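User: Could you go from structure to sequence for me? I need the amino acid at each position, not a summary. Structure tokens:
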């Protein structure tokens, strides 16, 4: 049974109020809307669901779990190796900049929190590039969060940001956004379990549609989002 504090920690990390700027990224979704690929709730749900299943659950969530395990045993070399490997999976300049900016912002926050150990702060300080999963995993491991709960929370935070981006961009009503969240969230526990099993480093990140959308977004004339 989860303690009240562990649940609070999960809510803290998944909160849209976490000051990392996640709300400012769409990961190519903005271009998909601009190009006419996404014009309806159904199309937005399909796009976000595919990204969730084929990118987040197969690459980012497994990386998060592997990093949590490395942080749990304070293996600095493994933390740095996994971080570099994850950064190498970022296919475009915008997506790479996104994870590094969010990682930097979260690392800065963790260094300011009193309950974070000195060794964690030192590892973050000496790292020149910090991917978002590296910093997120540092907090999750320090707070001794359950792996499945952590992966589910991480996926939920991403899903919520993407749905809210779709609500603004298509545009869709708030009810449409909640329908998408309700439908897509059903898959999160299973995807979290699969991420844990894949956490040994067998990551997959083959999402050419998202990659092309992100590339084209870099030169899009008018933009609300940074990716």
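Assistant: Here is the amino acid at each position, in order:
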């Amino acid at each position: 049974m989860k303690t009240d504090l562990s649940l609070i920690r999960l809510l803290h990390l998944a909160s849209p109020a976490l000051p990392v700027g996640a709300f400012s990224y769409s990961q190519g979704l903005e271009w998909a809307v601009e190009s006419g690929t996404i014009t309806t709730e159904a199309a937005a749900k399909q796009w976000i669901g595919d990204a969730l299943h084929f990118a987040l659950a197969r690459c980012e969530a497994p990386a998060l779990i592997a990093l949590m395990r490395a942080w749990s045993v304070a293996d600095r070399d493994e933390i740095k190796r996994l971080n570099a490997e994850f950064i190498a999976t970022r296919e475009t300049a915008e997506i790479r900049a996104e994870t590094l900016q969010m990682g930097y912002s979260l690392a800065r926050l963790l260094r300011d929190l009193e309950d974070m150990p000195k060794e964690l702060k030192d590892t973050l300080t000496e790292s020149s590039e910090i991917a978002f999963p590296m910093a997120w995993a540092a907090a999750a491991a320090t707070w001794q969060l359950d792996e499945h709960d952590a992966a589910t929370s991480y996926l939920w935070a991403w899903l919520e940001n993407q749905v809210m981006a779709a609500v603004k961009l298509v545009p869709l009503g708030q009810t449409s956004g909640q329908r998408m969240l309700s439908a897509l969230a059903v898959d999160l526990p299973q995807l979290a379990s699969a991420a844990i099993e894949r956490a040994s480093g067998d990551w997959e990140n083959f999402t050419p549609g998202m990659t092309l959308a992100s590339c084209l977004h870099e030169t899009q004339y008018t933009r609300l989002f940074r990716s």
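One structural detail worth keeping in mind: The chain has one domain: 37-217.
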